[in-house]
Amino acid sequence: MKTTLAVLLIMELYGLSSGLKQHFFVDKQKKWCSAQQYCKTYFHSLSTFVSDTEKHRFLANASTQTSNAWVGLYKKPEIGVWKWSGGIDAVQISWDNGMQQPNNLTTENCALLYKDRNALHDEKCREQLKFFCMTNFTLVLQNETWDGALEYCRTHYKDLASLSTMERMASALLESTQAETEYVWTGLRFLAGDWFWVNGDDLNYTAWDQNEQHQCPARDLRCGALDKQTHLWTNRNCDEKFSFFCQ
Ligand SMILES: *[C@@H]1O[C@H](CO)[C@@H](O)[C@H](O)[C@H]1NC(C)=O
Ligand SMILES: *[C@@H]1O[C@H](CO)[C@@H](O)[C@H](O)[C@H]1NC(C)=O
Ligand SMILES: *[C@@H]1O[C@H](CO)[C@@H](O)[C@H](O)[C@H]1NC(C)=O
Ligand SMILES: *[C@@H]1O[C@H](CO)[C@@H](O)[C@H](O)[C@H]1NC(C)=O
Ligand SMILES: *[C@@H]1O[C@H](CO)[C@@H](O)[C@H](O)[C@H]1NC(C)=O
């Protein structure tokens, strides 16, 4: 069954807003690696909570999970060091000490959030579990032209954000409520006859406003923004100044 955007917006109930990161509980069972693959395709990665603040925000809301679930923490067995997805060494980890976790069994190289205790357990990566994915958009509350936004994102983050899946779109909509402008720049650009995401993502998911002319945009309407009102994409004049999403 195809999930609609409306259903995804209901995920707000599960959505844990932690500033930069929004976490989503995914109700599918996968091995850790496949879960990570899924998160990277539709979101950003399996959920991480590196600082104390992030951890508290994540855990405060994680009780919405319906079962034990993978998070983005794994062990490099060769060196015995736990790492957050993305490669950062994990320094403080909220292990379930009361249940003698981690129990350090040699094959337990992945971490799950144990439902009833809001704490982490090590587990065999090949177990099939539900999981938490996160998006990592940053809404920048600065008014910039599209080019200015691109430059800012590439300097301070990686790129202007791609809302290239329904999940990313849902996350961006949640975050866009904080924007100070009616439109929010995204990484959508029209050049040489086509729209594309500046970071190279596939443009097979689209959310254009069908009432607008986006296929052959006028010369001055070739930058893509999210419209807070319609919840759709719209092509705007690249010189207008809006808030924007970086990733
Ligand atoms: C929990 O999630 C709700 C809904 O997304 C959010 O409004 C609230 O701030 C979150 N609480 C914490 C402590 O992060
Ligand atoms: C597993 O290893 C960690 C770190 O080396 C240690 O703190 C913990 O007590 C060990 N757990 C058990 C059950 O031995
Ligand atoms: C999420 O974005 C923030 C801000 O750009 C960055 O510091 C952090 O490393 C990112 N997290 C991951 C897991 O990529
Ligand atoms: C950006 O523009 C909006 C709308 O014009 C305005 O309300 C807001 O104060 C501006 N923000 C900044 C940081 O200049
Ligand atoms: C978009 O393309 C990617 C890779 O080509 C594919 O994995 C994905 O399923 C496609 N998504 C849709 C909605 O067709």
Explain the overall architecture.
Residues 23-134, 129-247 form the C-type lectin domain. InterPro entries: C-type_lectin-like, C-type_lectin-like/link_sf, CTDL_fold. This is Secretory phospholipase A2 receptor-like. The structure is a single chain. By secondary structure, the protein is of the alpha+beta class. It has five helices and 14 strands. The protein has helices spanning 5-10, 32-42, 52-61, 146-156, 166-176, and strands spanning 16-18, 21-30, 45-46, 69-76, 81-84, 110-114, 119-123, 129-135, 138-144, 183-191, 194-197, 223-227, 232-236, 242-246. The strands form two sheets. Strands 1, 2, 3, 4, 5, 6, 7 and 8 form an eight-stranded mixed sheet that branches. A hairpin with a 4-residue loop joins β4 and β5 (81-84). The protein is elongated, with a radius of gyration of 19 Å. It starts with a helix and ends with a strand. Bound molecules: 2-acetamido-2-deoxy-beta-D-glucopyranose (5 copies). The site of one 2-acetamido-2-deoxy-beta-D-glucopyranose has 3 residues, from loops.
Reconstruct the topology from this structure:
Blueprint: H1 5-10, E1 16-18, E2 21-30, H2 32-42, E3 45-46, H3 52-61, E4 69-76, E5 81-84, E6 110-114, E7 119-123, E8 129-135, E9 138-144, H4 146-156, H5 166-176, E10 183-191, E11 194-197, E12 223-227, E13 232-236, E14 242-246
Parallel strand pairs: 4-8, 10-14
Antiparallel strand pairs: 1-2, 2-8, 3-8, 4-5, 4-6, 6-7, 9-14, 10-11, 10-12, 12-13
Bound molecules: 2-acetamido-2-deoxy-beta-D-glucopyranose (5 copies).
Residues 100, 102-104 line the site of one 2-acetamido-2-deoxy-beta-D-glucopyranose.
